[in-house]
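sanity check this chain:
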Amino acid sequence: MPSPDFDLLMMRRALDLARLGTGHTRPNPLVGCVITHDNRIIGEGWHQAYGGPHAEVNAVAAVADPTLLPHSRVYVTLEPCSHHGKTPPCADLLIEKGVREVVVCNLDPNPLVAGKGIEKLRAAGIRVETGVLEQEGRWLNRRFFTFQEKQRPYVVLKWAETADGYLAGPYYQSVPISGELARVAVHQWRAEEQAILVGTRTALHDNPHLTVREWPGPNPTRVVIDKNLSLPPAHNLFNGQQPTVVYTYRERAAKDNVDYVMLSEAEDLFPQIFNSLYQRNVQSVLVEGGPTVLNSLLKDGLWDELRVLRSSRQLGGGVSAPKPGLSGLREHCRLGDDELFVYVN
């Protein structure tokens, strides 16, 4: 039996492998798998893309000598699936290969799995351990867990502010605040989230593309709040280059890769938006809106993670950044000339 320290080391390796799928597996979770024999790794893999082979399949395929599998110990970051989806059940694969020991980080909250994979493995005589590095696994797959457990996307708020607390110039004009490293980080964040949301004023004054240009990765779905359909049709958001969803109180037909969703004025705005995104299978959303959008979400507690980029630059006046007065600081670091503060709700 391997030592507890060895189990932790192998599960950390599996989590590192899982992370390599960031931005490519959604709405599936990030999953990594390591297979060991006599305390050495004989195979490893991760879920690389939605619709592609799962982590266990890739790890088993990487084992040079399959005769070792019945004497191996498998480490996987999420409970092996037990149902037919895009691919066959991974629990069945491990049973077929004669594996005798499986160590699992997190149980799968998806109702299609939800413990059934563990039950199937144990019914086949496989020894299963669960909960190894459970909190680390939940953080890695926080988008997936939030989507499954709360039936809404994982919401990341982001803004950049000057040292004296401003987001923009006096008339909402866009001014350079962050440095180069911070701008690259923002494009990385865009690639990691499934959707990106802005309000009317930000869309109007900044005319953003909301694309990933300074980091390799997929463009997120653009989400725009335009209650009265007042944004100019020539704006970049309507160029049709990526899927765009406009939430409005007015009816308009979809056109040129832009979908219009009419909301009820009698109901709260953001619960309607997040429910609509959930129905569209959107697992996470990065909010790059202005103070009206940000303050509304902060006030209602409708957020999961907050990233504030603070510049050393002074503006002397303008549109004030939110002042949430939060605890729950998870990370504080420097990105070039800027500071990054990450909070969790």
